[in-house]
TrEMBL record:
<dbReference type="InterPro" id="IPR003462">
    <property type="entry name" value="ODC_Mu_crystall"/>
</dbReference>
<dbReference type="InterPro" id="IPR036291">
    <property type="entry name" value="NAD(P)-bd_dom_sf"/>
</dbReference>
<dbReference type="Pfam" id="PF02423">
    <property type="entry name" value="OCD_Mu_crystall"/>
</dbReference>
<dbReference type="GO" id="GO:0005737">
    <property type="term" value="C:cytoplasm"/>
</dbReference>
<protein>
    <submittedName>
        <fullName>Ornithine cyclodeaminase/mu-crystallin</fullName>
    </submittedName>
</protein>
<dbReference type="InterPro" id="IPR023401">
    <property type="entry name" value="ODC_N"/>
</dbReference>
Length: 372
């Protein structure tokens, strides 16, 4: 019994950065989600994964302690269709990793034979995970962004902001203006260099000190900032800052003025990647702490509120299966992307298949015959 080990370099050779193909794979994945050809954890088959946190204090020697952005997560899933395999993405996260020159999160992905449980592949998954998140952003743009979009705004020009922008640019190549809001000069500089290297129109590239100014003329808005601890620290898109017909793709916590969620005169529609993940909010975002903060709501929180109130929330898996769907040019689409483990399985499988065909990676032996 053997499996393929794929380093990050191997994953790149295996096509992990092929964004158009990734978006198509995400579309196929959501079709399978709609048809029920998948399994996740939890009683309603919709768990994001299992997260292990540490205590705030402990008398036990060497026990890790809780800190912002510090945890371990396992995300298991089965996906059917042509993939027909089981996968588990695992990662540890620690904001202090940057001090050692490491990414905040370090991710690995394992694929298993769904019949025997035998390992098929074990692979580096940092790029894979960012790609599938970007791929879903591209899928939202495919269905909800103006075909003639000219301006995209990125709130949070980090890793996910870069990959989501790549996906939106793949789907809407007519974009000529890139607006950016980011707090860190280093992340803005890396983002700027990335856009230049990708050949994006730098004469239309602008950095803003105000979120509202960055968003005001945008056809597509991507929110991808890191998640703060407190609700009041989430980026806020204020009143009248989103133009009619815009597509807002939310990959991270962002607040919006309640006019977008509560005022029925506003032509706003919320879209979920999987509605069941937002039932009862399930602790997705922090809660507001002051009366002023309660005048705002996160997009994912608003999805939960609309579902609880019986209001119509569009579901991406249903949209990709509906050949008759047509976006309304005057409606603001607020799209919540929470991340579903089957996305990792499908994109990992695609990379694994190419690696197998082209002899990429290293084959490792588990046993010739088990000595159990």
């Amino acid at each position: 019994m053997e499996f393929i080990y794929l380093s990050e370099e191997d994953m790149i050779k295996a096509g992990v950065k092929d964004m158009p193909r990734c978006i198509d794979t995400m579309e196929d994945t959501f079709r399978l989600l709609h048809r029920g050809d998948y399994r996740l954890g939890g009683s309603n088959n919709s768990d994001h994964g299992l997260r292990t946190r540490f205590p705030k204090e402990s008398d036990i020697k060497d026990m890790p302690l809780d800190a912002p952005g510090r945890w371990f997560t396992a995300m298991p899933a089965y996906l059917g269709g042509r993939y027909h395999c089981f996968g588990i993405k695992t990662y540890g996260a620690n904001q202090d990793n940057a001090k050692q020159g490491l990414p905040r999160s370090i991710l690995m992905m394992q694929l298993l034979d769904v019949v025997t449980g035998a390992p098929l592949a074990y692979m580096s998954a940092n790029i894979l995970s960012a790609m599938r998140t970007g791929g879903v952003s591209g899928l939202f743009a495919r269905y909800f962004a103006d075909q003639n979009a000219e301006t995209v705004t990125v709130i949070g020009p980090g890793v996910i902001g870069r990959y989501s922008l790549d996906a939106v640019m793949a789907e809407r190549p007519g974009i000529r203006h890139i607006h950016v809001f980011g707090r860190g000069e280093k992340s803005r500089a890396v983002f700027r260099e990335h856009c230049s290297a990708m050949g994006y129109p730098m004469d239309g590239y602008r950095e803003f000190s105000s979120i509202d100014e960055a968003c005001r003329d945008a056809d597509v808005i991507i929110t991808a900032s890191s998640q703060p601890v407190h609700f009041g620290d989430y980026p806020l898109i204020g009143k009248n800052s989103i133009k009619q017909g815009a597509c807002v793709i939310v990959t991270s916590a962002v607040r919006i003025d309640r006019m977008y969620s509560d005022d029925d005169s506003q032509k706003c529609v919320f879209v979920a990647d999987d509605k069941r993940m937002y039932m009862g909010n399930r602790g997705i975002d922090a809660a507001p702490e002051t009366e002023e903060e309660k005048k705002t709501v996160t997009v994912k929180g608003a999805v939960a509120e609309w579902l609880a109130a019986g209001k119509n929330v569009l579901n991406l898996p249903e949209i990709v299966e509906d050949p008759g769907f047509v976006r309304d040019k005057d409606t603001i689409y607020l799209c919540a992307s929470g991340g579903i483990p089957i996305e990792d399985v499908s994109w990992a499988y695609e990379c694994y298949q190419k690696a197998s065909r082209e002899n990429i990676g290293q084959k490792l032996n588990v046993w010739e015959k088990s000595s159990l």
